[in-house]
Amino acid sequence: MDIPESAIGDADASAARIYFLLRAIRAFEERVHTEFPAGRIPGAVHLYAGQEAVAVGVCSALNDDDYIASTHRGHGHAIAKGCDLGGMMLELYGKAGGVCGGKGGSMHIADFDRGMLGANGVAAGGVPLAAGAALSAKVRGTGQVAVAFVGDGGVNQGAFAESLTLAAVWRLPVVFVVEDNGYAQATGTPFHLNGRTVAPRGAALGIPSVTVDGYDYFAVRAAADEAVARARSGGGPTLLECTAQRFFGHMEGWDQQAYRGEGEVERVRAEHDCIRSFADRSVADQTLTAQTIADLDRVVADLIDDAVRTAESAAGPDPDEVLTDVYVTY
Ligand SMILES: Cc1ncc(C[n+]2csc(CCOP(=O)(O)OP(=O)(O)O)c2C)c(N)n1
Ligand SMILES: [Mg+2]
After folding, report:
1. What is the mean pLDDT of the chain?
2. Residue to mutate, 70, 72, 176, ligand 1, most ligand atoms under 8 Å from C-beta
């Protein structure tokens, strides 16, 4: 979605846009976390707060008509790719005006007009979808690029290895973005990744692979720019592994996070806040001012307030439409 011009003022427009997206994702997630216990948001909800620099760093390197395929933790990817905040909130509340007519909810948000091929309830489910979109772009010669987001747990699905293998041998214009947040539900990476990073799996197939600090927008963006340029110019796939922990539990409603270390979440929030570090560096570089940041915070807060108010009072889908949008015939 576009930022109101008035909020940018004299600031560098691209820095303001990045800050707006980072803040919009954080505010969306924090508000959903606060509203969830009231019981008006149906279904399973997984929050992305803490990992914002990955979604924004990657998606800001893409064109509008490029594709992304997301995960069960998909709000940040959708917002970063340009999906409307109000339409997303309506979708979470299961209301008719949602981006999927209120029939998808948090885990199935898709918006083909924005190149957002969908959040996905199947771990690693988006990986072969993105590889397929990349194959389609290559066959059609459109120059589009596809990005697959996948978690550290998802990479242990067979579909991940299969998709990487095909992407490598067909030189598909795809970027595999592995978000290592340290856990697959309650299972830590020291166990389920055997304490290893994922990048060597790409390298084993001849895919350029790199691991970057997922809290650092600038590091993610630089790696994404290189990967997207490679894909667009016919150089084939890249594996981009980003490390950044989530601020909330695995899923809203039941995760007490007993599997995380004493004070771990507080430390991550205090020492690895990607929004604070982006803001600090942007102010130091004079691409943003403290005033612009405060203005953007207010704009985002108003948008989220409005989105929740609208979603709470909106109507649900018409029962007569319960069987539409369920299957697609080709
Ligand atoms: C094929 C499949 N197996 C199991 C699950 C249950 N499940 C949901 S989320 C999840 C953990 C995913 O961990 P990760 O890929 O690291 O993503 P994160 O939740 O950390 O973002 C599992 C096992 C699932 N959704 N799909
Ligand atoms: Mg994980």
Report:
1. 96
2. 72
